[in-house]
Amino acid sequence: MRNWFPPDQADKIAKRFMDWMKNNPPDNSIDKNLGIGVTSDENGMILAISLSVIMKGKEKEALELATKQNLFMASGIKGFKYKSEITLDFPEAYKILGLAAPEV
Known about the structure:
The chain is α+β, with helices and mostly antiparallel strands. The chain has helices at residues 10-23, 59-74, 90-96; strands spanning 2-5, 31-40, 46-54, 81-83. It has 3 helices and 4 strands, in the order βαββαβα. It is globular.
């Protein structure tokens, strides 16, 4: 998941995220967070990137949860934008092609 917001909204974002986490603790039966990184983009916006592993068969639930979180975060935060994506790891992508992934 990627979130963009103006630097002057950082305090509000941090507080909203803490509120979300307080009322929505992680559900490791749906996904497991691997980490969150923060940087800036070419337009000066803060970019927060979250990477998670979605449990087998839980794609729908993971997208619903991400959407709810993003809508919660966006309410009252001027300039907040988000994008949720599901990407496959290397071996999963090769499985779809009917191939075994080479060692890298």
